[in-house]
Predict the structure.
Amino acid sequence: MLLYDRIQFGFTITYHYLFPQLTMGLSLLIVYFKWRFLRTKLDHFNDAAKFWMKIFALNFAMGVITGIPMEFQFGTNWAKFSELTGGIIGQTLAMEGMFSFFLESSFLGLFLFGEKLLGHKLHFLTGFLVFLGSWASGFLIIATHSWMQNPVGYEILENGRFVLNNFSELFSNPWLFPSYLHNQFASIVTSSIVVAGVGAFYLLRKKHVESGKLFVKTGVIFGVISTILVAFPTGDWTAKNVVKYQPVTFAAMEGIFETEKGGSEIILIGQPNMLEKRLDNKIAVPNVLSFLTHQNWQAEIKGLNEFDEDLYPTNVPGLYYGYHIMVGLGTIFIGIMVVALFFLIRKNLYNKRWLMWVLFMLMPFPYIANTAGWYTAELGRQPWLVYNLLRTVDGASPTVSSGNTLFTLLGFIGLYLMLGLLFVILVGKIINAGPSVQKH
Amino acid sequence: MEFFWYIVLASMLIVYVILDGYDFGAGIVHLFLAKEEKDKKAIVKSIGPFWDANEVWLIAAGGVLFFAFPTLYASSFSGFYLPLMMVLWMLIFRAVGLELRGQLHNEMWVGFWDKAFGIASLLLALFFGAALGNVVRGVNLGGVYDGHSMHEAHYFFLPLWNAEFSPLSERLGVIDWFTLLIGVIAVVALTIHGANWIILKTNSSLNERLKKLIIKLNVVLVVLIGISFAVWHLVDPNPFKNFIETPVLWIFPLIALVGIVGLFRVNKLKKEIYGFMYSSLFLAGALASSFISIFPKLLPSTNSVNPSLTIYNASADDYGLNVGVYWFVIAVILVGVYIFVQYKVFRGKLDDNDYGEH
């Protein structure tokens, strides 16, 4: 049954992406700490790098462990999709294995264990290579994702197979760069908020105070830059791609049921009512959506009413909520980070206990925002696997029965619950011990 | 171009088995022989910096399979659904065991993850051997019963086992007496291989015992291979066809033979690395010979209705295969550099090497 295949993929990918979204951004912050240490020779920068490396190592291991099932599932659960498009998306996925997994896995060991063996400069280099590998991995995954959202460089044979006819178009896909930058800045948002949050935790507890200040300061500076860049210009570019290539998805995620003459309002809150094709209890600001989308207050935006219902995204309310949660949280992040920056410049950030509480409590929310953003992208593409060309229902494995899929889905749920529990215990232990405890 | 990618894929799988194979073997030795914490730690340290990169060869080979032979990837991954998922779970347990054992200093914790790592290694060796057995034996492509296909010609589905437990039955399973035999051969061969790795990379007190064990296991290996030859014709009536047509290919069985003969001399070798090289030669020669025995088939069909999947009917189109060569060559050169750096930094005995711990 298609439902189990979709739940299994959705569950395993959602769980998986909790880890890379931290490690991609965190590798950048660790490289930054290490670089500052090389420049200043101040030990607390090196201690910070070492402390975050421990957290990085656990997250990275979880990312690898939960990442392998993703590559397997294309073949096991989505065999028809793999058969028909493997000549194209197989390229980018194979490149990910060859270019980034080897790089990351070879140098991660050196980065984690090699400080004494290599000396600080080479150690910095291995950290940089791990960073490079993880960002290359993200790039090739988003290249694959972009082809599914906006297929380019292909032709379709009579037997339904997609064949590649232009390799470079895979990488000049207009969907790719906005999505990649948007995603990478979002990953820096997660790691900045986590670094600042752990710092705020130490300041609130009055333990490891010097490290706490460094973490809060670094997290806030990276946080201000990344939370703004994730919204503008990269989020804006990404949304404009949706308007251009997937107008029905745009109408659904914005909650626009009817085309409005004289400009569309932007919906802040409201619940999609699919029975009556309207938005219940809405709070909206007139004409703003038209301006944001077309820089024209009166521009017309197509509502869902203009499209055949057969083409609607499969789960309009889910898509709408995903998008609004992402945008809402992103806006809140910018607000908090700007306030924190204001106090940082005024040099009285660290004794604002209420703000430390806010930063501490903020930690889970970038994970929610990132997940909601990916749900927007993925639910927005449904009911298609390859937009407008191959439906999800036609991509599943023809010979795998629902009993087998449910069996493995339950297995993954059990296994991942156990992994999650262990992860929380171990990360809690590292954070509790703090940066000044070097050995174990 | 299909042939180029076939060689690439086969080579990557062989490299994978040689590299991750020593991790599995080390895990099996760890499970059965290492009693003292010092020896356990030595074994874990000997594979610590390498196992993750070794596993990447499997992922990367999977990627190349996906892009170069998408039909085979789709057919085999869905057809072997359950065993592949179990391999995944075992890979997860092995990784968790290795990564987490050092995180808490508590006997129960360490003991539990040691067992998880050891048992997962054992089962992985068994499963990968059985997988090779399945490829040689073939599957019921298209699900043919009474002359009718239940699925498209290149799809199938195998349960883990069937009541008959036989490779000759109409209803096949992943595990039958033939694939199980190949699985056991893999366990024995990889245990030898892992023992050689431990001897090479540690000063463990087990090393002298391991040398004796290698010779005993080698006898077992020779006997098991003899048995497999005696029954091989039941699953593949003509395994020597390609060797007879192209005699130069006999080099591969010969390489395997050199490896197995060399292993009997493990006590007298001048350098410890020779032992590891002999077991590597055996693995490479034996795997290459198995692949050649079914060439150009990739997955043989056990029925006469649907054709076998071959390198020609399961491959991607020419443009994609051609353009892939460019990035692949660059990537392989880079991978060579990484491996050189990795093995250079972590050279010599690792158990006394203070490269730090988790």
Notes: Residues 33 and 405 of chain A are 45 Å apart (CA to CA).
